[in-house]
Amino acid sequence: MIVRICQSLIAVVFLALGGWALISPTSVIELAVTPSYQDSTFLTRFALACFGAQAVLFGLMALAVRWSARGFAVFALLLLPFFAFNWYFHYEVPVLTSIGMLDFAGNVTMLVLAILGWRAARAEECG
What would the DSSP string read from start to end of 29-60? Predict the structure, then answer.
C-alpha cells in the first residue's frame, strides 16, 4: 500500500508541474524565469510545452506500472543531478525565480517519496 501511495504522489508532482508547462508554457516563463532570461518566442513556448508533455507522460507511467525497490532506488539516484541543476540556475546563473524553485521542492518531495517507497518495497520483497 505504501509503495503505491509513494508512486502515486511522485506521479502527482510530474503531472502537476508537467501539466502546467504543457498547458500554459507562457505562464511558466513569466512566473518561473527571471525577467533577464525570459524569452517567449514560439519555439521557447513549444520546447517548454514538449518538456511538460514528457513530464506528464512519465507521471502517467508512474501510475500505470508497479515499481520495485530497485526502481525506487534508481529513481532516487537519478534525481540527484537535478539538485545541482536547481542550485546552479537559481544561485549561480539566476534563471529560476523563487516560483521556479517549485522544481526544487518537487525534487525534494520525490526524493523523500522514493526513499520511503524503496524501504516499503524492499520490506514487501523480503518478506
Answer: HHHHB-GGG----HHHHHHHHHHHHHHHHHHH
Render each residue's pLDDT in the chain as its tens digit; 127 residues.
Answer: 999 999 999 999 999 999 999 999 999 999 999 999 999 899 999 999 999 999 999 999 999 999 999 999 999 999 999 999 999 999 999 999 999 999 999 999 999 999 999 999 999 999 7
DSSP label of 93: S
C-alpha distances out from residue 51 to 24, 46, 57, 60, 66, Å: 12, 9, 10, 14, 24
Cell of 56: 506528464
- Would the pTM of this model clear 0.90, i.e. be above it? yes
Three-class DSSP category at 33: strand
**Residue whose C-alpha cell reads 517519496 in the numeric block:** 113
